[in-house]
């Protein structure tokens, strides 16, 4: 009875809340259904539905190929757009009605509660060494949680600075490699009447990306990792200096004045329309920038975030490296077949998606023809090759409520509502990460 | 017909299906939510029973208090701006103006459009870079007033009220219009013969006779203000800095972004209680015979 009540409540919550939201963008969700006479049916949920998202085109092809080669194991896919997807998957896992295979955000705090509560199938025993050998170096370690494996990698994403070279030339600004050059560029761009950098702070995580990279450049990745484990360390001179620099940039007018009402999607739209000279984002924006509909196609360069003269971070210390992948529900009736499909899907999507510009590969790509990759994808891949260390998205590393607090604090910092000192004091109140970093 | 209404079996047969559905999708979830509100629970796994701790925390949480303040402001704006406006339009419309049907339809259109569409529409109107509102201000020489309406603390709240007020003006207008139209012409004519002016007729005849419908409108608009979610969610998502946050958006963030199902359920229970209390108050002080 209790389970029934719980199911009813959760379904109603999901219908009531998501039903009204999903109507907001046309074509926001689409479903591909495969009819088959197979005895086993597997369901797959993912969030790749965007018009310029290469995975959205690849997924149906990969599934179609699998279905025709495996008449007895048929896969049915449902795609839902990003923010709604998160709500949908959380609700259905809570209701015990998760699909057999579903997309999960990079191993951090998003998946952690479900792994802990046993809602995700452990696949360690299914994996043979030959599949591990096909992965890129370091990947089989990256997907482990306390020595156990729950997912296979698909893509890796890293964040870098995107600069619109045309606008930089127009303003006579130099593409920045250091903090003082960055400030200088901001001033020149402003004088020329160009918005130096775009942030879609309505969604709060784009602003978080800026603070996080600034903190990593100021304190260095090692110090940041320490602070994740011991929150008191957030209140140290390096992080105060980082917050001061963030506020200094905001006060210098580096960001669009409309940032608090601009969403992430609007930010991408504005950058692709040439309305801002810089954007700090991960390489999932590449396909949109290189899309024929983009006004800045071919004019954008991707560079590592500038280093700081007084900072301990190096430009080989990378923000990102998060491994996104698919997970198998522990409720699945066909674990063996689901894992088999998971392996097929992850490798196919990882390699084909890399060639289509969806993300950097988590799989061995030797022997693949990469000449068709866009310049942006190639330079992102080259930046990743220089990496000496990775720190993934902080809101995935921090526990969920601390992540929310972190994002809200950064918004206040950007608006000048709190001083860098207060910011760091409040950061020191956050809960430490639950992940083993 | 009377025999059907006095037959208890017939009543049960007709009412039971609806009653069951209503219980299943409305009453049961409310009780389940009330139970969840006593837990410290992340939505998966096991919750710990914490009694009324969530409620105690709620009333010490400045974010919750601020969201309640916003919903009260919103209710006040509905009562003192939206309803008088609807009433005015309804009375004008009911006084046999030319093109009655046309105006009735036009004012009702926003009610038919999905709230999400309306929110998208208004967020474009308010947009700081290319918005209609700023362009309008610039074209009439008031460019110093142009600003980022939804992105600033001192304008965001008012800017997000306006679309909801606007959206439901047509709805209340239609209810009141029906109320005004249902008043028998004989009474109006009798007043005319007695020499009452049009204004006098409105205050002495129309409004008193519209009391029942006015009460319904009042309850609807107050409850609507307490429950508002979709419009705020799309327009501002409670931002910037929680200035436009209402209990329902806070509930959503608490449950789905910070995984605090127990605390979020406590907020949802509060919303229900808030609506109930105000319905009772309005019923008490707005008695109709």
From TrEMBL, chain A:
Entry keyword set: Signal
Secretion signal, residue range per the UniProt entry: 1-25
Highest taxon listed in the record's lineage: Bacteria
Keyword Signal: yes
Keyword Chaperone recorded: no
Record-linked PANTHER family: ARABINOSE-BINDING PROTEIN-RELATED, BLR3389 PROTEIN
Protein name according to UniProt: Extracellular solute-binding protein family 1
Species annotation: Paenibacillus terrae (strain HPL-003)
Automatic annotation (TrEMBL), chain B:
Pfam (any one): BPD_transp_1
An annotated GO BP: transmembrane transport
GO cellular component: plasma membrane
Family annotation (InterPro entries): ABC_transporter_permease, MetI-like, MetI-like_sf
CDD domains reported for this sequence: TM_PBP2 (cd06261)
Broad class of the protein's primary localization: membrane
PANTHER family linked to this entry: ABC TRANSPORTER PERMEASE PROTEIN, INNER MEMBRANE ABC TRANSPORTER PERMEASE PROTEIN YCJO
UniProt protein name: Sugar ABC transporter permease
Taxonomic source organism: Paenibacillus terrae
């Amino acid at each position: 009875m209790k389970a029934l009540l719980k199911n009813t409540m959760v379904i109603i919550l999901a219908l009531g809340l998501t039903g009204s939201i999903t109507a907001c963008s046309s074509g926001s969700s689409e479903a591909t259904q495969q009819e088959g006479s197979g005895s086993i049916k597997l369901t797959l949920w993912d969030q790749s539905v965007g018009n310029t998202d290469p995975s959205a085109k690849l997924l149906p092809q990969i599934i179609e190929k699998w279905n025709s080669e495996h008449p007895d194991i048929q896969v049915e896919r449902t795609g839902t757009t990003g923010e709604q997807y998160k709500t949908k998957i959380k609700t259905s896992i809570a209701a015990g009605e998760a699909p057999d295979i579903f997309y999960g955000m990079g191993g951090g705090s998003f998946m952690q509660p479900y792994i802990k509560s046993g809602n995700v199938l452990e696949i360690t025993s299914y994996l043979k060494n030959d599949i591990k050998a096909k992965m890129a170096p370091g990947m089989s370690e990256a997907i482990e949680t306390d020595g156990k494996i729950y997912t296979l990698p698909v893509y890796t994403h890293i964040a870098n600075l995107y600069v619109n070279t045309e606008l930089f030339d127009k303003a006579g600004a130099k593409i920045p490699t250091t903090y003082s050059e960055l400030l200088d560029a901001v001033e020149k761009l402003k004088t020329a009447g160009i918005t130096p950098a775009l942030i879609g702070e309505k969604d709060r995580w784009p602003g978080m990306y800026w603070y996080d990279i600034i903190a990593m450049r100021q304190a260095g990745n090692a110090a940041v990792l320490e602070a994740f484990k011991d929150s008191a360390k957030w209140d140290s001179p390096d992080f105060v200096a980082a917050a001061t620099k963030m506020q200094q940039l905001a006060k210098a007018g580096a960001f669009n004045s409309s940032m608090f009402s601009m969403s992430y999607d609007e930010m991408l739209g504005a950058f692709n329309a040439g309305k801002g000279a810089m954007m700090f984002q991960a390489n999932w924006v590449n396909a949109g920038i290189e899309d024929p509909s983009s006004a800045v196609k071919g004019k954008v360069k991707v560079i590592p975030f500038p280093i700081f003269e007084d900072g301990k971070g190096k430009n080989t210390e990378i923000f990102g490296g998060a491994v996104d992948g698919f997970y198998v529900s522990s409720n699945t009736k066909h674990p063996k077949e689901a894992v088999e499909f998971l392996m097929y899907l992850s490798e196919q999507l990882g390699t084909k998606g890399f060639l289509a510009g969806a993300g950097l590969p988590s799989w061995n790509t030797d022997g693949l023809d990469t000449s068709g990759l866009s310049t942006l994808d190639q330079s992102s891949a080259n930046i990743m090759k220089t990496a000496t260390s990775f720190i993934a998205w902080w809101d995935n590393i921090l526990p969920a409520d601390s992540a929310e607090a972190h994002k809200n604090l950064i918004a206040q910092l950007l608006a000048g509502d709190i001083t860098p000192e207060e910011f760091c004091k409040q950061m020191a109140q956050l809960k430490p990460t639950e992940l083993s970093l | 017909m009377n025999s059907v209404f006095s037959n208890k079996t017939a009543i049960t047969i007709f009412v039971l299906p609806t009653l069951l559905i209503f219980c299943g999708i409305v009453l049961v979830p409310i009780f389940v939510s009330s139970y969840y509100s006593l837990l410290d629970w992340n939505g998966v796994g096991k919750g710990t029973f914490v009694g009324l701790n969530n409620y105690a925390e709620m009333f010490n949480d400045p974010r919750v208090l601020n969201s309640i303040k916003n919903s009260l402001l919103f209710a006040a704006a509905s009562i003192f701006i939206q309803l008088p406006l609807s009433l005015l339009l309804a009375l004008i419309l009911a006084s046999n103006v030319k093109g009655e049907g046309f105006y009735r339809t036009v004012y009702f259109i926003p009610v038919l459009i999905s709230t999400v569409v309306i929110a998208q529409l208004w967020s474009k109107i308010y947009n700081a870079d290319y918005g209609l509102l700023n362009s309008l201000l610039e074209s009439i020489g008031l460019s110093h007033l142009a600003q980022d309406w939804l992105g600033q603390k001192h304008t965001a709240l008012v800017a997000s009220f306006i679309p909801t007020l606007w959206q439901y003006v047509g709805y209340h207008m239609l209810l009141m219009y029906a109320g005004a139209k249902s008043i028998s012409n004989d009474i109006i004519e009798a007043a005319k013969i007695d020499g009452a002016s049009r204004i006098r007729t409105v205050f002495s005849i129309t409004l008193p006779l519209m009391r029942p419908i006015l009460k319904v409108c009042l309850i609807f608009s107050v409850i609507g203000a307490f429950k508002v979610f979709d419009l705020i969610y799309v327009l501002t998502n409670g931002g910037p800095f929680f200035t436009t946050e209402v209990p329902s958006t806070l509930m959503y963030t608490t449950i789905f972004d910070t995984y605090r199902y127990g605390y979020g359920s406590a907020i949802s229970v509060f919303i229900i209680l808030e609506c109930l209390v105000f319905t009772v108050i309005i019923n008490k002080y707005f008695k109709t015979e």
